[in-house]
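Re-run with default settings, no changes from the original entry. Doing this only to confirm the output is reproducible before filing.
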Amino acid sequence: FVVVKLQGKIVDILCERNPSYKRFVVQEKGGATLYMQLLKALYGCIKSALLWYELFSGTLIKMGFKLNPYDNCVANKTIEGKQCTIAW
């Protein structure tokens, strides 16, 4: 799972939109902080890249592709006697 740490004005905005968040707000270094577990990966988070890679490569494997053991960002499959290579 992915956890995001929110600080400052965004915490106030979220609490105004949904007052039930106020019970999760903690004070850190004199400011309001809110930790939230995301239901999906958020663009720009380190874990997002790994989650995307696992989803993409897993989908290719289910489609019959085999990952290159020397470069895990290359997948190969023989389709109707011709090699199909996907690199990302």
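Helices lie at 9-17, 46-62. The CA atoms of residues 15 and 22 lie 6 Å apart.
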